[in-house]
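Appendix B, example 12.
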Amino acid sequence: MNVLLEILKTVGPKSSVPDTVFATVGALANALEGDFAKYMDSFVPYLYNALQTLEEPALCSMAIGLVSDITRSLGEISRAYCDDFMNRLLAILSNASHGSQLRPAILQCFGDMAQAIGPYFEKYLSVVAAVLNQSSTMTFHDGAFEMFDYFISLREGILDAWDGAILAMKQGRGEIS
């Protein structure tokens, strides 16, 4: 992991190297599960930076997927990072030029976060529910296949997010003190 962090420190802003590093980090997080937590403080600044790099949608999309991987791997340990993750994901959604493109992945990420932190997701539920409600009002007008594919992905993201939220709240009955 230290080698990967050194690589991230030295690459330029337009490099494709972070994509590969992020894929490796995702695999490490999945393999290490809760033990990955020891690397979070040194890695998370790079992840936050990638989530703010909207001019590189592929890198931002990879970072969104990595948030899902990390929260699933860490489980409740990821609660310490969820406020920052949520703020950055919501900021992406509010970006008019790139937010809609990344919306399905972000909605799926909400579901993964909910399942990871369980009943503690209630803190974010009202905001996420509003985003999901707003996303569900989008309609398909154009006959282009790409738009149809986008709306299918959007609907799947909405269902994934609700599924995660419902499972998190069901898991939390009487568990939070």
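The chain is about 75% helix and 0% strand. The longest helix spans residues 145-171.
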